[in-house]
Amino acid sequence: MRAYYKKISSMLLIIAIAVMFGSVASKTANSKIITNVPSDVSSDELMAVVVEDFENTQVGDNGWAIASRPKQFTKAETEAKLKMKNPVPIIEMKVIPGAPSDMGVEPWSLTGLGEKKDKVLGVHFQFRYPGTNEISILAPPEVHWKEKKPMYTYNPNTGKKEQERGLELPGKAREISLWVMAHGLPYSLEAWLKDFKGNTHILKFGSINFVGWRPVKVSIPGDVPQTFESYPQTRITKITRFVLRANPNAAREELMQEAFFFFDQIKVLTDTYEVNFDGQNLHKVFESGAQKGVEKKRQ
After folding, report:
1. Model confidence at 16: pLDDT above 60
2. What does each C-alpha distance from 249 to 132, 145, 181, 243 come to in angstroms?
3. What is the pTM of this model?
4. What's the CA angle centered on 90, arms 64 and 133, to 5 degrees?
């Protein structure tokens, strides 16, 4: 009899735990947005999406850019500082032929990227002095991840919408990966992520003190806001820069050595599901001005 009651008690405990976790999962998975067409099994569309493959990218003002800390002196600044030695004698960025042999291609790419592996992004630099040196690889001016049109963000300081630097991550992103080719120098890698509220989150891939090509990845914390309880529910998060950070405790000779790093195929693991409802694209028709007799006033 005691064994029977003990078995019943165990079953009731299991049911209670299942109900508790079921309610938590339901709370986190379901949106407050209620449409006339409820979600089906496709409401969790988790997939890996290539967001940059460097095949058709540019460098400079209209593409990826490079900066250093400390900053490189210009010629005029060098002369003005009584011929002080430039703290960054070499800093340059190029897109060159190449690819990691072990990296696959994406024959059915959602973004149309990753279908080729012919080019990589390379950076070349040297610091004259050891210390807390860093190289920033700045994302290109922001374009829509799928439609490839320029995207603008309101700047309260200027009162205008401006095209910020940022690489958009589709959906509700969970992980970021990219391929890195290194020469065994004491650097670590970070991704700087900007959420839709304007806050920056620094994600650390960790040390890239290895030799050859290797894929590295980092998880996006759950407290990075990527959704909002209105349509569209998913709010875009974007990479604003990658940072190569020197280990200041490394050997002086390594920190002053001429350095090369190469990058390829930035990919994100993401949930691309968005709520669907009748008339969800009417705002695009409104914005296009396709309708005749439109009166447009804006203060």
Report:
1. no
2. 9, 39, 22, 18
3. 0.76
4. 80
